[in-house]
Amino acid sequence: MVEVVVVAVAMMVMMLVVAVVVVTVGMIVGLVVVMEVGVRLVVVVVVVMVMVTVGVMVGLVVGAAVEVALVVLVMVLVLGGGSDYNGGGSDNDGGGGSDDDDCGDGGNSGNGRVVMA
């Protein structure tokens, strides 16, 4: 459960960081355009809106990539060898023991019925 929270928090932080960086760059570009070229405020608003959209989209992509990487890392480190080996052991025990017993009992009961008939 802790791993899920860590992954979710890391994803949100990465999304916010990337979005804030891209939006800040957009605002700086807009201000430079206004100061140097003397264009109206509408251009700044459009540039900032475009940068906000791009920032959110890039933030989502980066956040998703970080999430996938963290999930894989957590699965390898935390859930890695121990649970896989244990799972293998329980599969072997359950499969081998119960299957062999069931087959043996079925054969014996079948022979018994044939003999009685």
UniProtKB/TrEMBL annotation:
Transmembrane helix keyword on record: yes
At the top level of its lineage, which domain of life is listed?
Eukaryota
Start and end residues of each stretch annotated as Disordered = 84-117
Biased composition annotated in UniProt, kind: Gly residues:
84-97
Keyword annotations for this protein?
Membrane, Transmembrane, Transmembrane helix
Q: Does the keyword Membrane apply?
A: yes
- Provide the transmembrane region boundaries: 6-34, 41-62, 68-85
Protein name per its UniProtKB record: Uncharacterized protein
Which species is listed as the source? Prunus dulcis
Q: What is the lineage of its organism?
A: Eukaryota, Viridiplantae, Streptophyta, Embryophyta, Tracheophyta
